[in-house]
Amino acid sequence: MDDFEHYTTIPQFNRMRLDILYGDVWQQPELTPRDRSLVTCAILGALGKNAELEAHMHKAIENGVTPDELRGLVVQLAVYAGWPVGVNSAKAGLDIFKAHPPAEGD
Amino acid sequence: MDDFEHYTTIPQFNRMRLDILYGDVWQQPELTPRDRSLVTCAILGALGKNAELEAHMHKAIENGVTPDELRGLVVQLAVYAGWPVGVNSAKAGLDIFKAHPPAEGD
Amino acid sequence: MDDFEHYTTIPQFNRMRLDILYGDVWQQPELTPRDRSLVTCAILGALGKNAELEAHMHKAIENGVTPDELRGLVVQLAVYAGWPVGVNSAKAGLDIFKAHPPAEGD
Amino acid sequence: MDDFEHYTTIPQFNRMRLDILYGDVWQQPELTPRDRSLVTCAILGALGKNAELEAHMHKAIENGVTPDELRGLVVQLAVYAGWPVGVNSAKAGLDIFKAHPPAEGD
Amino acid sequence: MDDFEHYTTIPQFNRMRLDILYGDVWQQPELTPRDRSLVTCAILGALGKNAELEAHMHKAIENGVTPDELRGLVVQLAVYAGWPVGVNSAKAGLDIFKAHPPAEGD
Amino acid sequence: MDDFEHYTTIPQFNRMRLDILYGDVWQQPELTPRDRSLVTCAILGALGKNAELEAHMHKAIENGVTPDELRGLVVQLAVYAGWPVGVNSAKAGLDIFKAHPPAEGD
Question: What is the DSSP annotation of F42-105?
Answer without folding.
Answer: HHHHHTT-HHHHHHHHHHHHHTT--HHHHHHHHHHHHHHH-HHHHHHHHHHTHHHHHHS--SS-
